[in-house]
From TrEMBL:
SMART domains: S_TKc. GO terms for molecular function: ATP binding; protein serine/threonine kinase activity. Its EC number is 2.7.11.1. This is non-specific serine/threonine protein kinase.
């Protein structure tokens, strides 16, 4: 064994591990309890973004904890070498930290000592971030008060130092401090002395966020919400995971390519059935996940394929976008002749009531042009600061036709009815046919993955992007879309909830705590759950129609509520539903040309790490 500070590195037959050695004599009763808790928690944690314990042992003098060895150093050293980071790099790191926090949150585990020194990096490019050192971690289902201070003062939440109150939100404060440090080069409570630091923790004045035009609105909004001194004002975990700057459901992860394929297959079916609106949104989702897959793909050959598929999708996107636009224009023209000026275009998503302000739609832009160009074709420099672009929260500007059937894309002048006649299955299927359709989609997803990533021959491997027809399937590379990632990396990152699933969870909680005397509340909640369920099941057009039909009755019920607290909560939920619908509506109306993308580029690491 080679000694490395207080750690040891042991070379075994196939891997290298870091060994944390703890002296038994130096442990007081409380420290012993903390050590037992740490080992107990680490035994249960299996996640790509959490440093993994491989085993533990002890002898008469020491306890040994064997951890996976990470050679990229910690985030503290990385920050010192860079001083401050570009926004896209910060977002990349923060999304990975959010994956770890989501995993802990789902298991009611609070870390209590999140700081740059406890965030380790791998040596890969881009690096994988891993949360480490669970010595202060504890399982908490509700806030508790302790007679001890856990954590580091510089990253400690004010309520811990002032009142000894520990709850899940204390980890989010620590994330906010790290976020602030990444943005501005120092922590918000950076002090020359410990006494000065303690005084800042006790102070009640708001944290001042420096104004920097290079950082986007979503970026500044999130750091501001994380660094709220009052627990009641601080963003909570579920809001953090779905915040536009994090958008965890679309963040780069080993499953990104599978998510992309899934939406593409669904969109193919919808497109064949003539359901262009739902097909549009599923292609949009597929493109988002393709960009995410490109960001973390390590294999150069696979990156070429993903890059080519993105370019191909973006090319055909303009055609279908114009096709949808032509349909809307023709429909509006016919309607104006038949109904004396009344438009036959998509109806307004909502009826605006005086007591419930409608959410403003986002500005129409072309994020595929911006983000895909950055992800695929830009030569990124580590020190260059580039504004973040969120493909999910802004409008798409285009839609895509099926890659598997590009030759069958209708021309701009083909009638929509002709495409609808090609549908092979009814829109509303029985349970048996739906199950059969689901199985068939799984088969098609596997086939599409095989068509994309079958291993070519040695000669073809050096080509820019070999065609699917020129390759023979290779089972060693074709089991999933993450062949360049280790099996552990792929299987140790569970799926995260979408914003729609969190909304359904909130509505269930509202139903549980609501007064039984409020007639109609359960029905309204069930209606809203149905709306989000449609969105979650990729039935976007049906969801918007459902909202249009029912919103008036929901608003009427809201006005009649006598419980003011309940009225406030339900109003918030209705506003959330409107915001989602308005974003979908704005996306459908978005226009814009898509910039052609070059086939290759030497460096396409979009997280700006080199």
């Amino acid at each position: 064994m080679v000694r490395f500070s207080r750690l040891y590195i042991r070379q075994m037959s196939r891997n290298v591990v870091a060994i944390k050695r703890i002296s038994k004599k130096a442990l007081c009763k409380r420290a012993q309890d903390n050590l037992v808790d740490e080992i107990g928690i680490l035994k249960e944690l299996q996640h790509r973004n959490i440093a993994r314990m491989t085993e533990f042992s002890w002898d008469s003098d020491y306890v040994y904890i064997f951890m996976e060895y990470l050679g990229g150093g910690d985030l503290s050293s990385f920050l010192k070498s860079k001083r401050s980071l570009p926004e896209r790099t910060i977002r990349y790191f923060l999304q990975q930290l959010a994956f770890a926090l989501h995993y802990l949150y789902e298991r009611n585990i609070v870390h209590m000592d999140i700081k740059p020194q406890n965030i380790l990096l791998t040596t890969s490019v881009p690096p994988v971030l891993k949360l480490a050192d669970f010595g202060f971690a504890k399982s908490l289902e509700k806030p508790v008060k302790m007679d001890e201070i856990r954590g580091s003062l510089l990253y400690m939440a004010p309520e811990i130092y002032k009142f000894g109150v520990y709850e899940k939100a204390c980890d989010l404060w620590s994330v906010g401090v790290i976020f602030f440090e990444c943005l501005f080069g120092k922590a918000p409570f950076a002090s020359a002395t410990v006494e000065e630091l303690k005084a800042k923790l006790l102070d009640d004045s708001p944290i001042k966020i420096p104004s920097r035009p290079v950082f986007g609105k979503d970026c500044i909004d999130l750091v501001s919400k994380l660094l709220k001194r009052k627990l009641s004002e601080r963003i909570h975990h579920e809001q953090f995971f779905v915040h536009p700057f994090i958008d965890l459901a679309h963040a780069p992860c080993p499953q990104s390519i599978d998510k992309a394929i899934n939406h593409i297959v669904i969109a193919d079916d919808l497109f064949s059935a003539g359901d262009l609106v739902d097909a549009y949104f599923n292609y949009k989702e597929g493109l988002i996940h393709l960009v995410s897959a490109l960001q973390i793909e390590l294999d150069h050959w696979r990156k070429q394929i993903i890059r080519a598929k993105l370019s191909q999708y973006i090319k055909v996107a303009e055609d279908l976008n114009r096709h949808l636009d032509d349909i809307e224009v023709v429909g509006s023209s016919h309607s104006s002749h038949r109904h004396s000026g009344k438009s036959n275009a998509a109806p307004s998503v909502l009826s605006k009531g005086a007591t419930l302000p409608a959410a403003k739609p986002p500005k129409r832009s072309n994020p595929i042009s911006t983000l895909a160009k950055e992800a695929i074709s830009s030569t990124d420099k580590p020190e260059q600061v580039q504004p973040s672009t969120d493909l999910h929260s802004t409008s798409l500007g285009a839609v895509v036709t099926p890659i598997s059937s590009i030759s069958s894309v209708p021309s701009l002048h083909d009638p929509l009815d002709a495409r609808k006649q090609e549908a092979k299955a009814p829109k509303h299927q029985s349970f048996t046919s739906s199950t059969s359709s689901s199985v068939w989609r799984q088969i098609r997803r596997a086939r599409l993955l095989m068509a994309w990533f079958s291993s070519p021959t040695g000669a073809n491997r050096n080509d820019s992007v070999p065609s699917a027809s020129s390759r023979t399937p290779d089972s060693t590379r074709m089991s999933d879309g993450s062949a360049s990632l280790s099996e552990t990396e792929f299987t140790s990152q569970p799926a995260v909830k979408t914003a729609y699933e969190y909304a359904i969870k909130r509505l269930d909680s509202l139903r549980d705590i609501s007064s039984e005397g409020e007639a109609g509340l359960s029905e309204t909640i069930e209606d809203l759950r149905r709306y989000y369920a449609l969105l979650h099941n990729n039935e976007y057009k049906a969801a918007m129609d459902y909202l249009q039909c029912n919103f008036g009755s929901w608003l009427g019920f809201l006005k009649g509520l006598k419980d003011l607290e309940l009225q406030k909560t339900l109003r918030s939920e209705l506003n959330q539903a409107l915001t989602v619908a308005e974003k979908l509506k704005a996306t459908l109306k978005a226009k814009g040309e898509i910039t052609p993308l070059p086939e290759e580029e030497a460096n396409e690491q979009s997280c700006l790490i080199s």
